[in-house]
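ok, trying the design again with the full structure, not the truncated one.
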């Protein structure tokens, strides 16, 4: 729990009372559902085709056939994102995106670490050989990325952690932010080409107490940057092999999710009633709380 420095001179009873009140506040946070799935698409520089679902279905697919074809499926239960796009002839360049977020409650983990990773695997097939317009558009490329962010519960949600532009809220410092991206050139002079693509991030959160609540976010993008006249006739970006999230806890640690489905984690047990303020003084005698700084795993 966190106490401001100006409160450290308060009486022991007052500190105890405030500590119990903070636990009560945290219990209210835990009781609230806080999860989302967000499959999204973009055609060229057009507006985002957003499929955000908050505190509802835990699996959603978003697709379009206006320019070529693209789709994105986000499944919170197994922590996966599937993406696919293809275009023929005059290419606009398609972006597929997927993200999800979940509130995680962890008990009995003091002194251990919560480890996590998120990896993306896919393939790009291209056909080229068309004339390249002198002084025309730049050569085609493919951009792909993966990211993980972890915040104290209630500090960020889908609206201020976008992920599509890889931008956390500048006013909020995450406890953990891991990000990896690649931009690979596409050889449009080849009649056929095949590329294997892979990206991965991992990180750890140190658990300071036996009662912790976090919001975790994971996101991934695949975007083909191309335009008419750069020699590319067709591409297929197949990431249906999924971007996959994984997490691990030490033996004996209990973890829960607000959706009751994320990675097999059930909902937290019912919140125990908080004692009345008068009882705080009796329970808190001798209890002193100090602010802590969370550390990543060395």
């Amino acid at each position: 729990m966190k106490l401001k420095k100006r409160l450290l001179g308060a009486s022991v009873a007052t500190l105890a009372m405030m500590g119990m009140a903070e636990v009560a506040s945290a219990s209210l946070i835990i009781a609230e559902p806080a999860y989302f799935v967000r499959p999204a698409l973009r055609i060229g520089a057009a507006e985002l085709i957003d499929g955000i679902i908050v505190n509802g279905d835990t699996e959603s697919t978003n697709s379009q056939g206006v320019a070529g074809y693209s789709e994105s499926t986000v499944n919170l239960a197994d922590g996966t994102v599937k993406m696919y796009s293809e275009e023929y002839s005059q290419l606009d360049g398609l972006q597929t995106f997927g993200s999800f977020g979940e509130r995680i409650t962890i008990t009995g983990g003091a002194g251990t670490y919560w480890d996590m990773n998120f990896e993306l695997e896919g393939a790009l097939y291209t056909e080229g050989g068309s004339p390249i317009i002198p002084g025309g558009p730049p050569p085609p490329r493919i951009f792909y990325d993966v990211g993980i962010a972890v915040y104290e519960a209630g500090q960020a949600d889908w609206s201020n952690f976008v992920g599509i532009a890889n931008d956390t809220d500048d006013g909020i410092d995450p406890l953990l932010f891991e990000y990896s991206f690649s931009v690979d050139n596409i050889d449009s002079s080849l009649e056929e080409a095949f590329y294997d693509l892979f990206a991965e991030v991992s990180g750890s959160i140190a658990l300071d107490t036996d009662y912790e609540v976090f919001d975790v976010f994971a996101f991934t993008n695949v975007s083909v940057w191309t335009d008419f006249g750069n020699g590319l006739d067709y591409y297929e970006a197949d990431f249906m092999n999924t971007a996959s999230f994984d997490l691990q806890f030490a033996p004996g640690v209990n973890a829960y999710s607000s959706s009751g489905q994320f990675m097999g984690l059930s909902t937290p047990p019912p919140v125990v009633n908080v004692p009345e303020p008068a009882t705080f003084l009796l329970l808190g005698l001798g209890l002193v709380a100090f602010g802590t700084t969370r550390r990543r795993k060395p």
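Keeping the full-length input from now on. The two ends are 22 Å apart (CA to CA).
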